[in-house]
Amino acid sequence: METSLFTFLIHLSFTRMLERYTIPSYNIVVKSKANFHERQNLILSKLFTSGNKTVCVQGQTHSSLAGSACAKVLVYSLDMQDVLGPFDLTPGQLLRVKTDDRAWGVYLEVSDQVNADVWIDEEL
Asked: What pTM was estimated for this model as a whole?
């Protein structure tokens, strides 16, 4: 995990060179690496939700074998205090990661092209 975290931090330092998308994003073609950042409306989030969130990631690919990982996923707080993962994502799997009320990001690294969906479910 320490090596993965170190690698992630090095990659994150070059996020300007990565493909970057907002959360939510749907049917995004990822060919190598991508970074997703949540846009958070703090006022509405605090008024209408409990503050608990679930980061959701799903990917589809035509080239990976059934049951084999098509992507590595890291979920991280935008304040860089927490990194969750890495998680293996298999084609069609819905990865759900419980988080708190902070703004979150998702780093996705794929070996083959993946069509990715990334969104956040908030508890009311």
From this structure: 0.79
Domains (range + CATH), the chain = 2-122 (2.60.120.1300)
One-letter identity of residue 78: L
Q: Determine how many CB atoms are found less than 10 A away from the CB of residue 23.
A: 19
Structure-block tokens of residue 91? 């084609």
Instruction: List CB contacts of 108: < 8 A, sequence separation 6 or more.
Output: 30, 33, 34, 35, 36, 57, 59, 71, 72, 73, 89, 114, 116, 118
Exposed e or buried b for every residue in 108-120, given b needs 16+ CB within 10 A?
bbbeebbbbebbb
Q: Is the pLDDT of residue 77 over 50?
A: yes
| Residue 1 pLDDT level (bands cut at 50, 70, 90) | very low
Decide: 108 and 32 in contact? Cβ < 8 Å.
no
